[in-house]
Amino acid sequence: MENPKFEFYTRPSGHNEFQEFLDSLKPVEKQKLVTVIAKTQKFGLQVAARQMWIRKISDGIFELRTTGSNIQRGLYFHVEGPRYVITHGFTKKTQKTPVSELNHAKELRTEYYDNLGGK
Q1: Is CATH 1.20.1250.20 what the domain over 3-115 is classified as, yes or no?
Q2: How many CB atoms lie within 10 A of CB 57?
Q3: Are strands 83-92 and 5-8 parallel, antiparallel or unpaired?
Q4: Which helix (H) or strand (E) holds 78?
Q5: Domain residue spans in the chain?
Q6: Which of 32, 39, 93, 97 has the fewest C-beta atoms lying within 10 Å of its C-beta?
Q7: Is residue 79's pLDDT more than 50?
Q8: pLDDT band at 116; cut points 50, 70, 90
Q9: How far is CA 98 from the centre of its chain?
Q10: Which among 59, 76, 55 is positioned nearest to 8, based on CA atoms?
Q11: pTM of the predicted model as reported, rounded to 2 decimal places
């Protein structure tokens, strides 16, 4: 199995929510999340799941995970082959992923297929 290749979703308006989220983080928080993405791409999904860098949270929606005092998450979905699209990110403040964040990831996935990549 080929290792995953992540891309950040850019909306038809040009808005890239995940990049904006990364840019809003403190340098150390940004580096943690970027490192999780890089390690997942390098070592693959099975290693990433064992290391708890990634986790399935809903129907076809997964999360990239960091730990520490501020817990950052990036939500993503699988397109095809090694392609994965990160929809957006957020700072997790509760035990469970907020339903609003999950729904937003699903909306962005639908938008992606309706407008850009999945036709």
Answers
A1: no
A2: 17
A3: parallel
A4: strand 71-80
A5: 3-115
A6: 93
A7: yes
A8: low
A9: 15
A10: 76
A11: 0.92
